Amino acid sequence: MSVVNSKTIFKGNSVVKGVFIIYETDDKSVTLESLPIGTQKSIDFKLRFKVHNKTAERKVTIYSKTYKGALKEAISRREDFINQLKDGKLEERRIKNLTLDEGMEEYLNYKRGLIKDFTLRSYEQTYRKWVKPKLGNKILKNVTSNELQSIVNSMLEQGMAPRTTESIKQIMRPLFKYYANKGLINGNPAALIQIPKFDNTVQLSLSQEEITSLYKAIESYPIEPFHTLFMWLSEGRRLNELLSLEWSEVDFDNQIYFIKSNKNKAGLTMQYRVRDNIVQALNKFDKKSTYIFHAINDHSEKMSNDTVRVHWLKILKNANIEHLRIHDLRHILGSDLVSNNHTLEEVAQVLGHTSTNVTKRYSKVRQNKTNEALDSFFNRVKTMS
């Protein structure tokens, strides 16, 4: 394989061995220090190595914010190629016939165990619904940015929210990067997918009276274990976190419980306090099952989301509220805490966010309170004049 326009790279006074950059200059070499600094969409390198008296080359495309970071990755990939060749394990270029369906299956098998199960299921469902019907049988290396963009555009035309279409990029970009890292394809078509900007702040249309009615309906709901489940959800937990919670993950002596890393979005084991009312309710439960909220007919399995939703709809009916998601209990709590001047760090701790960047979606509530304060000030000024 021959790649034109490749330049020898100097790092300081030393030549970077076996790594060449494909860069638009007339010079035969460039220095790392002279390359521009800033966010790069992609940086192309030629890797050259010799194993068993045979010289081989690979062109790789690396996505990095800096040339320094990209060069470090290129050197690492070159070493990987050499080691694979020495071990006789370098893959044949079967990518020529690998379809996107086959590529996705291999990639998800690779990610199994590395990412949370519910995230993996979400990837599978999104791919199966939106990508597979249009591109599943296409040769992976021939998939283009325009084809992936057309899927996103189609979703938008069908009324999907921009944040929903973003999932296509979140799934497809690491898939193509996976094969690029193996040296089987060049570039990443998913990196060029354009998603319209969207407002990530949380806005709830419930009035204070409706919120009060909702929590009264939850507190008075007579059917267990759903009464306890919804009371617990009101403290900011996600539904999947509680449905996956096992008795062994609750420390009753110290009144704490743990959401394991494979059961939450943060990917870290999180610790929370069990409030007294939840402890009292749990002490009345039968603890012979694995899961606290087990399936009705099989105590070895966790309860299904559909079973929970049946009772959620009854609660909404009792509260005279037509449409509200279970997940909105988190948003109600987060919005209220921010509005009442709790810091983003405090709210993040309650909701299980590892970064306040996520919690900032509730900051618009605080902004609305600021506007109300300004209106109140100017109304008083007008009254005094």
Overall geometry = elongated
Mean pLDDT: 81
- Number of helix segments? 14
Q: Determine the fraction of residues in helical runs and give it as a percent range.
A: 40-55%
- The H-level CATH homologous superfamily of the largest domain, spelled out, is Intergrase catalytic core
Tell me what the structure shows.
With 385 residues, the chain is an alpha+beta fold. Helices cover 46% and strands 12% of the residues. It folds into three domains: 85 residues, no CATH class; 98 residues, Orthogonal Bundle (DNA polymerase, domain 1), CATH 1.10.150; 117 residues, Intergrase catalytic core (hpI Integrase, Chain A, Orthogonal Bundle). Strand 1 and strand 2 form a beta hairpin. The radius of gyration is 27 Å and the shape is elongated.
What is this structure, in a nutshell?
It is built from 14 helices and eight strands.
